[in-house]
Amino acid sequence: MSAAHYDIRSFSSGQSVGYLLKLAHALMHDAAAAAFEGHDVSFMQWLILVKLREGASTAGELCRIMWYDTGALTRLLDQLEERGLVERLRSVADRRVVNVRLTAAGRRKTSELMPLAIERLNAALADFSKAEFAQFMRLLKKFIATLQQAEQARTTVS
User: Fold this and answer.
1) Reduced to 3 states, what is the DSSP secondary structure of residue 123?
2) Where would a tag sit more exposed on the chain, N or C end, judged by fewer CB atoms within 10 A?
3) Nearest 5 degrees, angle CA 131-CA 136-CA 140?
4) CB-based contact 46:117 (threshold 8 Å)
């Protein structure tokens, strides 16, 4: 049995791992969004371009991997398509499926803005040594794997 890391008598929501991760995410997102101000692509639009470059191919898949609302994602895709950065193509195998892919301009824009995003990530991690960063990533991945295993067990039982 693993050790209990929280105690009901001393629990503080501000020390909850969920709250701290959400706060870190919000702060990182705000910093990235600010960095993308003045560019013709927002941070969220750029993330879509990156996910498409990494292999996502449908709006549904983008929603799942980005944990994003379908309506909001559709609006972002509309904007990216209007700018010529993505294109939607109906699948020949299944006409119900609409594939989304980067255009040449979308690939160029993704690469052009990559240094901006990397700079913000590195700034957020500036106080970490290489060893601390490696340990942080290992621990985050371990935490995620534990949550995924619990979710799989829960859905298998249901």
Assistant:
1) helix
2) N
3) 150
4) yes
